[in-house]
Amino acid sequence: MKKILLLSTNQATTPYPVPPLGLALLYQRLRDAYQVEFLDGYLLSSDEVRRHLQEFQPDYIGLSIRNIDDMVKGSTHSYLPGILETYLAPIKESRAKLILGGSGFTIFPDELMKVFGADFGITGEAEEALPLLLQALEQGGEPSQIAGVVLAGENAGVNPTSSLPLDKPFSSDLDTLLNYAPYSERGAYPIQTKRGCGHRCIYCSYPILEGRTFRKRTVAHVVNEIETTHDRIRNPGLVFEFVDSTFNDPPGHAEAICEEIIRRKLSVTLRTMGMNPVNISGNLLDLMKRAGFAQIDSTPDSASPVMLVNYHKNFTIEHLRKAARLIREHEMPTMWFFIFGGPGETEETLLESFAFIDEYIGRDDMVHITEGLRIYPRTPLAELAIAEGLIRPETSLLAPLFYVSPQLGDAELANIITREIANRPNCIRLTESRPPPELLQAALRERKERNQTEPMFRTLLRLKRQHSQGERNV
Fold first, then answer.
1. Could you give the CA distance from residue 135 to residue 129 in angstroms, rounded to a whole number?
2. In this structure, which of 257, 263, 427, 457 has its CB flanked by the most CB atoms within 10 Å?
């Protein structure tokens, strides 16, 4: 029986570390036909990776690349040097064939095939493509005929449309592959309720990764995964995070999941990524609180009517105001995310967003501010950047480039943001989103001593305010 090592390379800790659930799903697909070892590379050294390779002696290595960089304009941190040093160097000492995959690879397949000197790669979802590739390699088939497979020395072409049905349950022992301990203080256990995104935001890579059609999982399967994982891990600090592109799209799916959690009387702590303002309702927020949601993320990216149109958002400023009012009325702790500097951004549109922050977002809720838009290939933003002469069609975007509105420019954008956040302590630049070590340790200590259940961002904001107040009183 051939041996396959599945290795996660993600060591990113900002905004928090993420368990490699996708790779665990691949393990489940392969374990009946191959001898498979699953290795979470988080916190592993190159020597530890080398030891695993020497002991296991795999025939194939599936290397998952999740993040390329941290998308921070002006001080971008690339994860590739660390990945090459920690993981690729030991791999090159082995005899195994190297197969690349993951979201980062899917966005930059041609560049990363060359950087890693890989034998094969898989763009998009690998649950079907990887078993087919391995079968072809073992039985003399033709890998080039498998959708999503990239061969060494050849261009990847167009990423295949994601069509994997999600109506089958994930195996009930999924969580047993993951050592949750390193993620328990700041991370969360990721849960998908669907894949794909039907929206057309100009800068977003979700449609490239998962397709433009919402493919829903069965509600009972989602809640089964939450229930069995909660019962098995038995960690009082366990938080489940829904990691869909938007949790409340399409309408009704999020409500059904919450209703099933409530019906089963599960005592769980939940949070979620993006919420679409169009589908936020009082009923949904009430169900979410009853189901166990401790916080949500709201990602409008702008509160300027002009910029919502320019970003190709599917909602208006009235949708956003209504959603914000409902969030405040239901006292749902929320992290808000804004991206400033996109096409058509001016000082006037920036001030519209800050006026919205003042009127609708409470001081206890955090506002993340990103300056400039990371340009990803095959997005409308990349096409606009080409049309405006910022990049050429053949320009590689693996080394990050950022779009900033020509009406402002880098310096003016930074100056306005600096001025506007000076008296808004809950507005945090992306460059400052990683809390200082002493502040983080103080927050962790206080949460443990007082058994606090409030979202971590609220603890950090409160301690930050107390520290600032103390400095003013000196």
1. 10
2. 257
